[in-house]
Amino acid sequence: MTGVAGTHETGVASVNFRRILETWWPLAASWLLMSAELPAISAVLARLNDPEVHLASYGAVVFPISLIVEAPVIMLLAASTALSKDWSSYVKLRRYMHIMGSVLTAVHILIAFTPLFDFIVEQVIQIPPRLVEPSRIGLMIMTPWTWSIAYRRFNQGVLIRYGHSKVVSVGTFLRLITDATVLLIGYWVGWIPGIIVATSAVAAGVLVEAAFVGLRVRPVLKSRLMKEPESDEQLTLRGFIVFYSPLAATSLLMLSVQPASSAALSRMPGALASLAVWPVVGGLMFTLRSLGHAFQEVVVALLDEPGAEREMRRFAWRLTFLTTGVLTLLASTSLSAIWFVGVSGLTPALGDLAGTAIWFGILLPGLSPLQNLYQGILVHRKQTRSITESVIVFLCVCGGLLWAGVEWAPFPGIYVGLTAFTLGALSQVLWLAWRSRSPD
């Protein structure tokens, strides 16, 4: 068997539900473990001093800004899975990864340690004054985040390509253990500000995961990648830019909606409550959506094989029904109060707000498998520009609804935010479905 795509010795491979499941579940486990990070942080912050301030600082300022800075490196996972065909390509990709990591880390430092921070959070986002200093400290601590993510996702792509997707989930488990250790220490000490506890946990976690993945990829490089015959289609800087630029732009545009949504919620009724609940509800949504996020690399890796596209469409729809059903069950029963108040540690009033809010995003998790199915098809065909187009559609719909909410909404902003994200995601999926119909 060669690579994760696994072409059999006869030259004919069949893709069925079991085959897809075996490739998908370690990646899904990794995403699920990673998705536990935000609920764990929220649960600890909710039990420390000034929970609303520190929840809002992390969820509405520090995390969104960190995400948008690292956005250009997120798609290194897909790029590495698709392009690491031989040693020469790997070395070139590694060089590009380090360049991006160093430049973006410099951007992060510029924002966190200079007056640019004050301009962004006070003039652009316009967060409540109480959030400014905690957010500044948190963003400073998050400095190692971007380069660690770049290094980790680049090498994870190699592991996935060569059939070692289980290593990815082990690395994420170690990250979560590190997170939990730092969070528990902060909770036990009690007097450390919540934003310092949260960002220290996240920074330590990504560093540990990156180091682990870097160690585990070395044997794969020696035993597999270095022995691969040189590809006829050599990777050039121009070719990489043409392939990767739309993916980087996609991530950047997609994640720009995070600080934009924080800015919009800050201008709607019940701003502090909505900003405090936003990361908790977002963590729940991310957990369910993560099952779909794991699917794109599976599509990229297996799509060459006979019958793959038909089986993958079936698999994606099964995930859609599963995740939608789980969220509906949670929203319509007492499980909502158990999760938001009992587990996440929100006050009963904030728990009620969160429980009502999830109805406005009830379709959001189920759209993720379909989105990643169509994106995987387009990445495999190297039609990455179509993915960027879909994100522009998302931003137009989502941004328009957020603007309308700021202008006219008489109710809490979190309802508008989730509605905007859901309808934006639906529009994006419809665009991707249309663009993936034709290979031209």
Describe it:
This protein has helices at 17-35, 37-45, 51-74, 76-83, 87-113, 116-124, 132-141, 145-161, 165-189, 194-223, 237-266, 271-293, 295-302, 308-332, 335-343, 348-357, 364-380, 385-408, 413-435. It has one domain (17-435). Helix 8 (145-161) packs parallel to helix 10 (194-223) and helix 12 (271-293) crosses helix 17. The chain is mostly helical and 440 residues long. Residues 1-13 have low confidence and may be disordered. 79% of the residues lie in helices and 0% in strands. The protein contains 19 helices and no strands.
Mean pLDDT: 87
Tell me the span between the first and last alpha carbons: 31 Å
The ordered H/E elements are HHHHHHHHHHHHHHHHHHH
Number of strands: 0
- Strand fraction band? under 5%
Unreliable residue runs: 1-13
**Biggest sheet, open or closed, and with what strands and sense?**
none
In short:
This protein is an all-alpha fold and 440 residues long. Helix content is 79%, strand content 0%.
In terms of topology, how is this protein built?
Layout: H1 17-35, H2 37-45, H3 51-74, H4 76-83, H5 87-113, H6 116-124, H7 132-141, H8 145-161, H9 165-189, H10 194-223, H11 237-266, H12 271-293, H13 295-302, H14 308-332, H15 335-343, H16 348-357, H17 364-380, H18 385-408, H19 413-435
Helix pairs in contact: 1-9, 1-12, 2-9, 2-10, 2-12, 3-5, 3-7, 3-8, 3-10, 3-11, 3-12, 4-8, 4-13, 5-7, 5-8, 7-10, 8-9, 8-10, 9-10, 11-18, 11-19, 12-14, 12-16, 12-17, 13-17, 14-17, 15-16, 17-19, 18-19
